[in-house]
Amino acid sequence: MQLDRPTDRRKFLRGLGVCLTVPAFESLLPRRLLAAGSAPAPGTTASGAPLRMAFCYVPNGVNVERWRPQGTGATYQLSPTLEPLAGLRDHFQVVSGLEQRNGFSGPDGAGDHARANATILTGVRPRKTAGSNIQLGISVDQLAAQRLADATRFASLELSCDGVRKSGACDSGYSCAYQFNLSWRTPTSPMSPEANPRLVFERLFGAGSGRERQESYRVRQQQQRSILDFAASDADQLKAALGRNDRQKLDEYLTGVREIERRIEHAEKFGAVPDPGVDAPPGIPATYREHLKLMFDVLVLAFQSDSTRIATFLLAHDGSNRTFEDIGVRDGHHSLSHHTGDPAKLEKIAKIDAFYTSQLAYFLGRLRDTQDTDGRSLLHNSMIVYGGGLSDGNKHRHDDLPVILAGHGGGTLATGRHLKLENATPMTNMYLSMLDRLGVPVESFGDSTGSLAIS
Question: In Å, how far from its chain's centre is CA 78?
């Protein structure tokens, strides 16, 4: 077990090719981290717990009438699309009126799906090119990750349920790089997301180079042993140093790790499965619903273990024509988004929208039910943005975007309300406010005009 310093908050369980980060425990926290009143360090809350930030993207716009809540403030009524979130009402706010104006066509003509993905976290208009001379801007997650890089084992985590594309032509003369990447390290360098749960798992909980992690996995497969078996000795030593509550916390965490490992192993039995328009990597679950849940579960573990505090999750790229047969929708999502007011198509879009918000409810529920280092929940100490770069997919509108800001930001965010802003408020204004709470304030970002009152 690595305990570099008595005050080291990051503990590791080690074994052959294993570097399993575990949550910080109250039993081992130095007294200064438990004391109140001191100014929080960047990336932490007032209590000293980690403050996380994640962005979850859904494509193709929504059925606006079924999405839009009735009323404003704390007395608003949840819309049919938001009903799956009813049990979490006190843990999020719906934000209406936000815009990504650089998503609109302007002089660039068609390509709204590429621009929707490209602008959502950057607030910058992408250069229209299908070649290698791509040009965008740094994304908000990477701005935060670069400032907090020394705080965690991984500066950021990029997830997707689509394949990876960084070149080639996709939407109306735009490079696929814009449409399949949310996170941009520099204006010309996207951060490729990972869609294979096994590879994410091994990255988080493996040790050494990619080749060494691969060899460790081969040995574990050969011996039919779990990653936890290789860290069992360290786990026993750590448990002996913990109080009763922290021992229970460790057991719950390790059980969660093993359950995810078991589900990944089950998915790998099925081999590669097709993903509309993109070849899915081997090892992903046979159903999209299980794939989403597995990726959300891995993200919860990444936050719980403080492996990273910054994440993006591309649930599906804009323009995705995925079908949803398990909810009775056999038409492609993108095709349906061009509904021309057809009630039958609008009803199917509403079903897809509710499917996605139910996945968000699952993720937020996991965060709410997982205790953090300060006795609060992971959700209390998080800022989770859920939404997309289009509102009405039929008209390709990039204003009045469907946006939810979940989590309490360590007690700095308002929740349980519908915040209705003046239309055409830059979405980047909200990012300024989030960055300020994260301890990495900037004067401007993208097309921002000022901070947003989200508390």
Answer: 23
Percent of the chain with pLDDT over 70: 86
Give the pTM: 0.90
Query: Which two structure tokens, joined as six digits, stand for 403?
Result: 């946006």
Which of 73, 220, 64, 54 shows the shortest CA–CA distance to 139?
Answer: 54
Helix, strand or coil, per DSSP, at residue 47: coil
What's the pLDDT tens digit per position in 233-280?
778 888 888 888 888 888 888 888 888 888 888 877 655 444 434 444
Residue 399 phi, psi (nearest 5): -120, 170
pLDDT tens profile 20-40 = 777 777 666 554 444 555 678
Q: What is the DSSP string of 314-382?
A: ESS-TT----BGGGTB-S-HHHHH--TT-HHHHHHHHHHHHHHHHHHHHHHHHHHTSB-TTSSBTTTTE
Domains in the chain: boundaries: 1-39+200-282, 43-195+284-438
- Topology at the third CATH level for domain 43-195+284-438: Alkaline Phosphatase, subunit A (3.40.720)
Q: Name all contacts of 278-286 with Cβ < 8 Å and 24+ positions apart.
A: 278/162, 278/163, 278/165, 279/163, 280/163, 280/195, 281/163, 281/195, 281/196, 281/199, 282/196, 283/196, 283/197, 283/198, 283/199, 284/161, 284/195, 284/196, 284/197, 285/197
Average pLDDT of the residues of the chain: 88
Could you write out the DSSP letters of every residue in 253-264?
Answer: HHHHHHHHHHHH
